[in-house]
Amino acid sequence: MLHHLRKHLDRAAREGRISGQVVLVPVANPIGMSQRIQGNVSGRLDLNTGKNYNRYYPDLFPGVSRRIQGHLTGNAEDNVRLIRQAISDEIETLPDLADGDAYRKILLSLCCDSDYCIDVHCDNEAILYLYTNGTHPLQEKQLCAYMGCKLHLVDSTNSQCFDGSISLLWLRLKNEYRKFPIPSGCLGSTLEMRGQRDVTDDNGSRDADNFYQFLVSQGAIKDTQKPIPESLCKPTPLEAKVYLKSPHAGIVLYCRECGDQVSKGDVVAEILDPLKCPEKARTKIKSTIDGIIMSRSDQRLLGPGQNVMAVVGEEIIEAQIGTYLLSD
After folding, report:
1. Cα–Cα distance, 212 to 232 (Å, whole number)
2. Cβ–Cβ < 8 Å for 302, 245
3. Cα separation values, 292 from 234, 241, 266, Å
4. What is the pTM of this model?
5. CA 245 centroid distance within chain
6. Which CATH architecture has domain 239-315?
7. CA-closest candidate to residue 287, choices 296, 298, 274
8. Digit-coded pLDDT (tens) for 229-248
9. Confidence of residue 304 (pLDDT cuts 50, 70, 90)
10. Residue extent(s) of CATH 2.40.50.100 domains in the chain
11. Residues of CATH 3.40.630.10 domain(s) within the chain?
């Protein structure tokens, strides 16, 4: 998508139709891309530390809060400039000796003064869906509609991921300094562009066109705005998502596709143990909730406890509250 989007942006830049600045940063970092195991790129986790490059972002709130204390005013625009400078100054103090820390510091410095920070990802096998922090409900809904997302997950607590590290900082500052006008600042979100097997020119071109229209709708680019499409989903709390896991090692045989609506008790996959006799070789994996299949593993040989698929319902699951809800 980014390749096709760049064509739109280059043309808009030549014609002087970009308001402000739009920055495209490669999704995969060069450190992760250099990590190859038997020919396969293993860029999600730092092989040196085992940490996910998209996690462990530092908590900027204490330092930024100290920097702005006693300097906020009744002018919202002045407060925005003050806070953005404080964020930038705080980022400069972050450690950068380790490769992962240096990479996170660079990304934070690129987005600390932004109005929108959209992290573009690709899942294993998945529908097109959106993660947001719930800080900009209207704009998040518009992004979801323009992109044609089939699912919109909202997590207003996890600030250790890239998309939440800046956007949720603004929310915390608003709550801490209620006497002063502080806008929501940065809209942080993660766009999951389906699965790896869906990476095609056709999908990329269509997604770029849709994202370009979102930028036009937000005033970032001057162009004819197409009507906002009807949204295909509504915001859903992240606590409504469950992972179905493999009970033992075996070959996964899927019965349902990503995007399918399933009911509690539906068989969505089977785990085949080829070492057992045929009558006892298959273990059924059943959905534990009513919902939509968001994603599933692209591995066909799974070990015990590995994620088979993720299903998202419409209601918060009480047992999920306060737990770590990402698959990493």
Report:
1. 19
2. no
3. 13, 9, 12
4. 0.92
5. 22
6. Beta Barrel (2.40)
7. 296
8. 999 999 999 999 999 999 99
9. very high
10. 239-315
11. 2-233
